[in-house]
Amino acid sequence: MKKAIVCGAGGFIGSHLVKALKKEGFWVRGVDLKYPEFAPTAADDFVIADLRDPVNCRYVIDQPFDEVYQLAADMGGAGFVFTGENDADIMHNSALINLNMLEACHRRNLKRIFYSSSACMYPEHNQMDPDNPMTAEDSAYPANPDSEYGWEKLFSERLYLAFGRNHGMDVRVARYHNIFGPEGTWRDGREKAPAALCRKIAETPDGGEIEIWGDGTQTRSFLYVDECVAGSIRLMRSDWTGPVNIGSEEMVSINALAEMIMGIAGKRVNIRHVPGPLGVRGRNSDNRLIREKLGWEPSETLHDGLAKTYPWILQEVIEAGLAPPEAVPAARTGT
Asked: Helices in 191-333 by DSSP H: which ranges?
């Protein structure tokens, strides 16, 4: 039986990755500061450990693993990343985790390790036009990320690639673009735009009002979590290092995203634009390289992903006692 370890297995993407590896027949160890919030872990062994401590990293890397997935990081959506209040923690905590995990894997002579970077490492100056952002993998330099989160991701990419060159490690680097889906954070201040808008619309009665940061014309692409997991595993099993974008090319404005969710929810709410942290004006995955190197790209539409995500968040909102009264019968009947 093959063995894998998933660091960050208590998080959104990590918990889904554990499930996928288990379906393939792997024995899986999950590691995180916490268990998954919304469902029991599928891991065979789950270790609560702070990977900022090198002793803990050596403890969890206590045997040969066929695949190591390093997704653990201090991160969140725009409300966490772009306020400036969390910059020191973001850089310090995530950098320590990556330094420690690479050293632990190197000492154990584990060769194959996957690192989840982010599209936030792309230069801000290439993403000022909401209709024509540039995120080709070779556009990363000259470097100019729009946040300390992006700078840390860029540093850690180089760290993994350096360990690959100098220590013969078979590293894989993916740049994630706005992953969403069920069992993701939806209300703790770290949620990303799809979850935040699903929550706001679920909480608001028909004809009510929600807030959107900025003018809503800023653009993004969003990738459903199952496709993210599939792309990550495919990259891990390939003979190519990356870095490569794992994201959707279906770009949408935040206003249009809200409209799409309203359609799925079967309600109309008004939008009030307010000041708030925004990030770049436009971002979209460029999938030319992943098509060339892996012969694969995500195929699920944003609408289909949201159609699976909104009902899950609606149920969470109802169970938390935050939904308007008319939402409860709809959730019970599945409409």
From this structure: 193-203, 225-237, 254-265, 288-294, 302-319, 327-333
**Residue 126: both structure tokens together:** 């290439």
The closest of 8, 107, 3, 94 to 58, measured between CA atoms, is: 107
Task: Show the tokens assigned to 168.
Answer: 């013969």
CA gap 223, 73 in Å, rounded: 19
Decide if 172 contacts 115 (C-beta within 8 A): yes
DSSP characters over 107-158: HTT--EEEEEEEGGGS-GGGS-STTS----GGG--S---SSHHHHHHHHHHH
Radius of gyration of the chain (CA): 20
Place of tokens 């998080």: 11
Q: Which of 73, 79, 134 is nearest to 274 (CA)?
A: 79
Could you tell me which residues come within 8 angstroms of residue 196 by beta carbon, excluding any fewer than 6 positions away? 77, 79, 186
Q: Which strand (E) or helix (H) includes residue 3?
A: strand 3-7
Domains along the chain with CATH numbers: 3-179+223-246 (3.40.50.720), 181-221+250-284+300-329 (3.90.25.10)
**How far does Cα 256 stand from its chain's mean position?**
21
pTM higher than 0.90 for the full model?
yes
Could you read off the pLDDT of 76-124 as tens digits, one per residue?
877 888 888 999 999 999 999 999 999 999 999 999 999 999 999 999 9
149 as an active site residue: the answer is yes
Query: How far is Cα of residue 108 from the mean position of the Cα atoms in its chain?
Result: 28
Nearest to 46 by CA among 64, 21, 28: 28
Tokens 């999950």: give the residue.
30
Written as six digits, the tokens of 65 are: 């693993």
pLDDT (tens digit per residue) in 130-184? 999 999 999 999 999 999 999 999 999 999 999 999 999 999 999 999 999 999 9
Q: With beta carbons less than 8 A apart as the criterion, state whether 277 and 213 touch.
A: yes
Q: What angle is formed at CA 218 by the lines to CA 215 and CA 222, rounded to 5 degrees? A: 130
Amino acid 228 reads C
Are 102 and 159 in contact, with CB atoms under 8 Å apart? yes
Set 149, 160, 224, 310: catalytic member: 149
